[in-house]
């Protein structure tokens, strides 16, 4: 006899349990505002009901283009509660960038800040009218289970827009497990979120903390190191996640400023790899309980490097995390011997199954149950993973993914530009900056091309400098060899 599969619980149901069992425990803190679990659950259910009243049916995509606020946090779980799929949209993007994303993912609606509606998608502003409608919505209704997607974990793309791996409720829950097992999150912790909620780490760490019944403190950027330190001390925060760019800024601070960081139970870095000397300096001057987390938006965590591991193998990114199998393979997808450099692939219960509405890209990145993140690496005899470079061209500036094709397409839209190649410019502060190489049809100043990018794209995507070449370097197949362009760039 076949036993029918049990329905997967909606992740937001856990908030209702916390509302009954720890109703007055602080859930989200932002400045002087504290939202406990009873009020958080009610706010989530009312917004979920309002989304349903607005036409959001189970499985439909809902864009969230909000600033970092309690409302943003509530909406993450409200979309899940309504059965929708979260589409993260950076509120700093230009309208054309949001339109490009909406055109591909076709959201049922996009929730925006007042005055930030854009063409190409139905937008709902979080204003007085929105809040009044939310209060009228009936929270006492049946909501869908979790047998569907919960979020698009936006990833790098080659078509001028990010790709969207669909992550289900169950896979998101499995990612939460790795946070609790390997990263120090849990019901007794206070996680201070100091990165944008649009950012994958900030979003998922916030949601897993609330699922576990812990407290989230919002300290949205921009802020001075002294301000972040003061908020850690004020709230008794125990867990902090920062990208390497922010950690490098902290390394310039004096001991008095850094004192609150030393009391953290866990300080996490992810987004790009740090050097061994940087890791040592962070442990010695910022926080001894520092760990590095290698992960991807498509599959969640890959490996973790503990403080002890850093002293043993400072150039490694650690050992595979709980429940994840990592392999190094050759171009025929056959595993290679220990010490041999090859392509990294991994599988586990948190890995997405493919890209939404992008079967061609899915076939390239998801094969035989494994995800290929595009990185090269090797293992040593003790199972420590070492990164050896990236096989794809994505630029990571301060932990934020930048897609070269998007910038290249815009540069080539200028009448003077014949060809463009955009690469990562090694940078101590940001890990990488954006550098553009162009060939021209007619003279144009680099400043004009940079101004074009700043006008049409988010500021962090604009090239630091534009270099003019007579021709771009190519291989025998006619493909631009970007590695030769990078060789021309000294570290910033």
Description:
By secondary structure, the chain is an alpha/beta fold. It has 16 helices and 26 strands. It has a 9-stranded mixed sheet, sandwiched between helices. A 4-stranded parallel sheet has the order 4-3-5-6, covered by helices on one side. Helix 1 runs antiparallel to helix 2, helix 2 crosses helix 3 (70-81) and helix 2 (37-53) crosses helix 5. The chain is globular. The termini are far apart.
What layout of secondary structure does this protein have?
Blueprint: H1 13-21, E1 26-30, E2 33-36, H2 37-53, E3 61-65, H3 70-81, E4 85-88, H4 95-105, E5 109-112, E6 123-125, H5 128-136, E7 149-152, E8 166-168, H6 169-182, E9 190-193, H7 200-212, E10 215-218, H8 225-235, E11 239-242, H9 244-250, H10 255-258, E12 266-269, H11 276-285, E13 290-296, E14 300-305, H12 307-312, E15 319-320, E16 325-329, E17 342-347, H13 359-365, E18 366-367, E19 370-371, E20 375-379, E21 385-390, E22 395-397, E23 400-402, H14 404-412, E24 417-427, E25 431-440, H15 446-456, E26 465-468, H16 482-486
Parallel strand pairs: 1-10, 3-4, 3-5, 5-6, 9-10, 9-11, 11-12, 12-13, 25-26
Antiparallel strand pairs: 1-2, 7-8, 13-14, 14-15, 16-17, 17-20, 18-19, 20-21, 22-23, 24-25
Runs in which pLDDT lies below 50 for 5 or more consecutive residues are none
Largest sheet features = 9 strands, mixed
If strands are numbered along the chain, what order do they take across the biggest sheet? Answer: 2-1-10-9-11-12-13-14-15
What would the average pLDDT be, to the nearest integer? 92
Overall shape: it is globular
Provide the helix percentage.
25-40%
Compute the number of strand runs: 26
Output the structural class: alpha/beta
Count, helices: 16
Strand portion, in percent? 15-25%
- Rounded to the nearest angstrom, the radius of gyration is 23 Å
- Intertermini distance: 66 Å
């Amino acid at each position: 006899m076949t036993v029918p599969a049990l329905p997967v619980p909606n992740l937001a149901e856990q908030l209702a349990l916390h509302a009954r069992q720890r109703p007055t425990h602080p859930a989200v803190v932002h400045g002087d505002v504290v939202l406990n679990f009873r009020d958080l659950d009610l706010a989530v259910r009312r917004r979920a009901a309002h989304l349903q009243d607005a036409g959001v049916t189970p499985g439909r995509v809902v864009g969230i283009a909000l600033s970092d606020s309690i409302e943003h946090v509530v909406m993450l779980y409200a979309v899940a509660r309504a059965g929708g799929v979260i589409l993260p949209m950076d509120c700093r993007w230009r309208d054309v960038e949001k339109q490009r994303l909406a055109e591909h993912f076709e959201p049922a609606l996009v929730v925006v800040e007042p005055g930030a509606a854009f063409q190409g998608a139905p937008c709902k502003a979080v204003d007085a009218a929105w809040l009044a409608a939310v209060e009228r919505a009936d929270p006492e209704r049946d909501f869908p289970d979790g047998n569907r997607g919960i979020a698009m974990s936006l990833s790098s793309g080659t078509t001028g827009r990010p790709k969207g791996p669909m992550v289900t409720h169950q896979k998101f829950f499995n990612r939460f497990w790795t946070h609790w097992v390997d990263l120090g999150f849990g019901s007794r912790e206070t996680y201070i979120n100091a990165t944008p909620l649009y950012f994958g780490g900030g979003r998922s760490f916030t949601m897993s903390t609330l699922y576990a019944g812990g407290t989230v403190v919002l300290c949205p950027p921009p802020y001075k190191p002294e301000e972040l330190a003061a908020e850690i001390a004020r709230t008794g925060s125990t867990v902090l996640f920062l990208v390497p760019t922010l950690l490098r800024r902290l390394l310039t601070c004096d001991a008095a400023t850094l004192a609150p960081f030393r009391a953290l139970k866990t300080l996490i870095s992810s987004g790009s790899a740090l050097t061994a000397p940087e890791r040592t300096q962070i442990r010695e001057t910022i926080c001894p309980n520092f760990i590095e987390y290698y992960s991807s938006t498509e599959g969640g965590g890959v490996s973790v490097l503990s403080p002890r591991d850093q002293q043993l193998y400072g150039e490694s990114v650690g050992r595979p995390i709980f429940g994840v199998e990592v392999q190094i393979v050759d171009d025929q997808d056959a595993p290679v011997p220990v010490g041999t450099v090859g392509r990294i692939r991994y599988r586990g219960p948190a890995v997405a199954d493919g890209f939404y509405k992008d079967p061609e890209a899915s076939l390239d990145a998801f094969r035989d149950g494994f995800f290929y993140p595009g990185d090269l690496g090797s293992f040593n005899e003790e199972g420590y993973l070492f990164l050896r470079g990236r096989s794809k061209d994505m630029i990571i500036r301060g932990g934020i993914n930048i897609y070269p094709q998007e910038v290249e397409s815009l540069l080539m839209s200028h009448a003077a530009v014949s060809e463009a190649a955009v690469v990562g410019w090694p940078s101590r502060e940001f890990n990488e900056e954006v550098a553009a190489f162009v060939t021209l049809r007619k003279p144009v100043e680099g400043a004009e091309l940079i101004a074009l990018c700043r006008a049409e794209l988010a500021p962090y995507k604009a090239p630091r400098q534009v270099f003019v070449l007579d021709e771009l370097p190519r291989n025998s197949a006619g493909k631009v060899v970007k590695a030769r362009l990078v060789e021309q760039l000294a570290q910033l």
